[in-house]
Write a structure and sequence with these properties.
By secondary structure, the chain is of the alpha/beta class. The protein has 16 helices and 13 strands. The structure holds 6-O-phosphono-alpha-D-glucopyranose (G6P) and manganese (II) ion. Its cofactor is NAD(+).
Length: 444
């Protein structure tokens, strides 16, 4: 593997998360010496907005000579000679996210981008898009590392596991570090001292301990105690974001009623669908908030740069998201064996769960990829039961994708933990088939 002059490709380059990743890449050049950055997207105009912003960032850092920046919609141009590919697709964009969120709500069910039936709708679109990217990587850059953040993570990583079992790929989600960072900044800890033990499916898991090296003990019990008494406020990177404030409040409710573990906030959609439905406006969902907020702001930055306006133009704070991706890439490159939460085939990591489930657990990351850490204890029946049902539903959905099976899709929709009856499951499935059109595989 090359150690310098790296070529990095961002697949889904037009995403509003791209500047955060590039910011982290720039500040990590010492341990991750890249000289070429390619933005690849099928949406030429969004990709070009991002190209303007990144070019501007490189210029401010006096890096335009050292880093060659490319934008392209051509897979061959993008992936040939690539060393690292960061994949963050959103197939169908925010418009389809809005559809995913709104259709289930019409039938009184949870409407969310990655959880519940919205997540399943997104999943069938995303699998198609990500398998395409993996096939390009196999064709044009078979030795490259693919670091994937494309949602819904368990579904897409399960599909890739089946179709391309040998691809050099890591699947990661930033939710656990966002949870850790939010707790650490609220309660005055430094999460860099933490060795957390966490298990689950993606957006569906629990912390069972958090060992803090600065005091040499498990501090999860005291964190849970503080959660009981003190509200958790949004961290800087989500400042002013009411959706996230609601999420942290729901997390406190979960720890109150199910003590002993710290749940991933996304479990609210499975444990308290009634409440999340109550506090969501069915005509103005998260997709609308993001389109009217982050998306508009980014477009405006690109406009100002094109118009050569003076003054402070860049305005974004993505917290640890970009740094997390960067640290993972550096850990591979330099064989650092740093520890990250990754989505991997279980293979005994959670001893009493089926081996072929895609689970999210801690893993060491080095030159040969991920080395997942076994929990070395059996998980309890409550968590196990929830995970097994969700995992079976997800497996059925991936079966539906590969087998073009309407029946398997209906089973998946019915088994989804946010669904109380096969009636809405079928109605929503039929609505989604129509709304997704060619984004979805044909189901017969
Ligand atoms: C977290 C999750 C991601 C998800 C994102 C949504 O970072 O880990 O999987 O996509 O939140 O954020 P947004 O601001 O787009 O609602
Ligand atoms: Mn995530």
């Amino acid at each position: 593997m090359k150690k310098d002059n790296l070529k990095v490709v961002i697949a889904g380059g037009g995403s509003t998360y791209t500047p955060g990743i590039v910011q982290a890449m720039i500040s990590s050049r010492g341990k991750f010496p890249f000289t070429s950055l390619t933005l690849y997207d099928i949406d030429e105009s969004r990709n070009d907005d991002m190209y303007q912003i990144i070019d501007y960032m490189l210029e401010k850092e006096s890096l335009t000579k050292e880093v060659s920046l490319t934008e392209t919609t051509q897979p061959e141009v993008a992936f040939s000679e690539a060393d690292f590919i960061f994949s963050q697709l959103r197939v169908g964009g925010m418009k389809m996210r809005e559809v995913d969120e709104k259709i289930p709500m019409k039938y009184g069910l949870v409407g969310q981008e990655t959880c519940g039936l919205g997540g399943f709708s997104y999943g069938l679109r995303s699998i198609k898009g990500l398998l395409e990217i993996v096939s390009y990587v196999e064709q044009y850059a078979p030795n490259a590392w693919l670091l994937n953040y494309t949602n819904p993570e368990t579904l897409v990583s399960e599909a890739v596991r089946r179709a391309f079992p040998n691809v050099k790929m890591l699947n990661a989600c930033d939710m656990t570090i966002s949870i850790e960072e939010t707790i650490a900044t609220n309660y005055g800890y430094n999460r860099k001292n933490w060795i957390p033990v966490y298990y689950g499916l993606n957006h569906f898991g629990w912390y069972s301990s958090i060992y803090d090296k600065s005091v040499d003990r498990d501090i999860l019990p005291e964190i849970l105690e503080r959660l009981e008494k003190e509200r958790l406020h949004v961290a800087d990177f989500n400042a002013g974001d009411d959706t996230w404030q609601e999420a942290w409040d729901m997390m406190r409710l979960m720890t109150k009623n199910f003590p002993g573990y710290l749940p991933n906030n996304y479990l609210e959609y499975y444990l308290y669908p009634n409440r999340t439905i109550e506090h969501t406006d069915p005509s103005y969902t998260r997709a609308n908030i993001v389109m009217d907020g982050r998306e508009k702001k980014t477009k405006e930055m690109a406009r100002k740069i094109r118009a050569k306006e003076k003054g402070e133009i860049l305005d974004f704070n993505f917290g640890e998201h970009g740094q997390y991706i960067m640290d993972m890439a550096a850990s591979i490159l330099n064989d650092q064996h740093d520890r990250f939460m990754l989505i991997v085939p279980n293979q005994g990591a959670i001893p009493n769960l089926r081996d072929d489930a895609m689970v999210e657990v801690p893993a060491y990351v080095g030159r040969s990829g991920a080395e997942p850490i076994s929990l070395r204890f059996a998980i309890n029946d409550f968590h196990k039961g929830l995970m097994e049902a969700q995992n079976a539903a997800e497996k059925l959905l991936v079966d539906a994708y590969f087998e073009h099976s309407y029946q398997k899709a209906l089973q998946a929709f019915t088994l989804n933990q946010t669904v109380y009856s096969a009636d809405p499951a079928k109605q929503i499935l039929d609505d989604f088939i129509e709304a997704n059109g060619n984004y979805w595989p044909e189901l017969n």
